[in-house]
Amino acid sequence: MKAMVLAAGHGLRMRPLTLLRAKPVLPVLNRPLLDGTLAQLARVGVKGVVVNLHHLPETVVQALGDGRRFGLRIRYAREETLLGTGGGPRAVREVFGDEPLLVVNGDVRFGFDLSRLVSAHRASGARATLALRPNPVPGAYSPVVSDRAGRILSIAGRPRPARGTVSMFASVHVLDPALLDRLPEGPSDSVRDLYVPLLAEGAHLHGVRLGGAWYDFGRPSLYRDAQLRLIPGCGRDRVLVDRRARVSATARVRRSVVGARSRVGAGARVERSVLWDGAVVETRALVAGAIVTTGGVVRAGERARDVVVMPACAVASEGEAGGEVDWRGDMAWVELR
């Protein structure tokens, strides 16, 4: 079985973090976001994966390599122009052959069992099977309506409104790769340009409601909050500190993630925050509800609350950063949205 991971987006909602790395490889619990996805693909028997690239492609290649550490073979497909969720797989159609194809958005973290999705697809005889989950925010995600047997009746009210079980699409699906031949070359959307027309023709599309964690990192504050919830262990003040980090014996770290080769100085306090690899918090500084990126430094005695601290050279303007910027010498402090 083969798979495609969609990793080519600009990550505009996640700025300023995505000025430094592509969204699919932002660190989550001190590992690139895509690490978990690739490990799950390997567990369901996937051997070959295509990963498409556009924004900061070198950060994705550097983070994932050739896939060997996951037991996979990764092939990269660079897109000069963004091709979308349909056009990306369509451009590399010849790679997939005739076996069912797993397609996964690279910017979500999920904890559900992919084997259930694959098994349901093979058993249903559907042209495509979508992973569905309860819709926590109906206004934020388009409704997918399915009947009791799991057959999808409508997506976002198309091709016509329908009654049934309402869910949301979890950005993971299995499809017959021959369906990609229906799409034109160039940009297209898998839902709008493929699945909705198929529904209008009466084709069988299946949906499987899956439990487990699911996170769409829509903006930096959600990215921070999700990691604080995901820290393993019990208790309100649990932490995840990489063994290669240096934390002073007199520093206090509470409910935070601290990356490799980061440094927390004497008397410093880090609370409800995420420190990327190589971040620095100097003596007696306070970091609360913040993200300090690689190369970011909170100077001695400074108070960084609800901001992203990052090298100023990575930020050209407030508009590019996605929020108000406090320029502090060689550092940029960007409001955390």
Summary tags:
337 residues, 2 domains, UDP N-Acetylglucosamine Acyltransferase, domain 1, elongated
What does this structure look like?
By secondary structure, the protein is α/β, with parallel strands linked by helices. It has two domains: 2-216, Alpha-Beta Complex (Spore Coat Polysaccharide Biosynthesis Protein SpsA, Chain A), CATH 3.90.550; 220-335, 3 Solenoid (UDP N-Acetylglucosamine Acyltransferase, domain 1). It is built from seven helices and 28 strands.
Please outline the helices and strands.
Elements: E1 2-6, E2 27-28, E3 31-32, H1 33-43, E4 48-53, H2 57-64, E5 73-78, H3 84-91, E6 101-105, E7 108-110, H4 114-124, E8 128-133, E9 143-146, E10 152-155, E11 165-175, H5 191-200, E12 205-209, E13 214-216, H6 220-230, E14 240-241, E15 246-247, E16 252-254, E17 257-258, E18 263-264, E19 269-271, E20 274-275, E21 280-281, E22 286-288, E23 291-292, E24 297-298, E25 303-305, E26 307-311, H7 318-321, E27 325-328, E28 331-335
Parallel strand pairs: 1-4, 1-6, 4-5, 8-12, 14-17, 15-18, 16-19, 17-20, 18-21, 19-22, 20-23, 21-24, 22-25, 23-26
Antiparallel strand pairs: 2-3, 6-11, 7-13, 8-11, 9-10, 9-11, 26-28, 27-28
In short:
With 337 residues, this protein is of the alpha/beta class.
**Given the structure, what is the number of helices?**
7
CATH architecture descriptor name of the largest domain? Alpha-Beta Complex
CATH topology of the largest domain: Spore Coat Polysaccharide Biosynthesis Protein SpsA, Chain A
- Helicity level: 10-25%
Distance from first to last alpha carbon = 39 Å
| The CATH H-level homologous superfamily of the largest domain | Spore Coat Polysaccharide Biosynthesis Protein SpsA, Chain A
How does the helix and strand content classify structurally? alpha/beta
Shape: elongated
Instruction: Round the mean pLDDT to the nearest integer and report it.
Output: 95
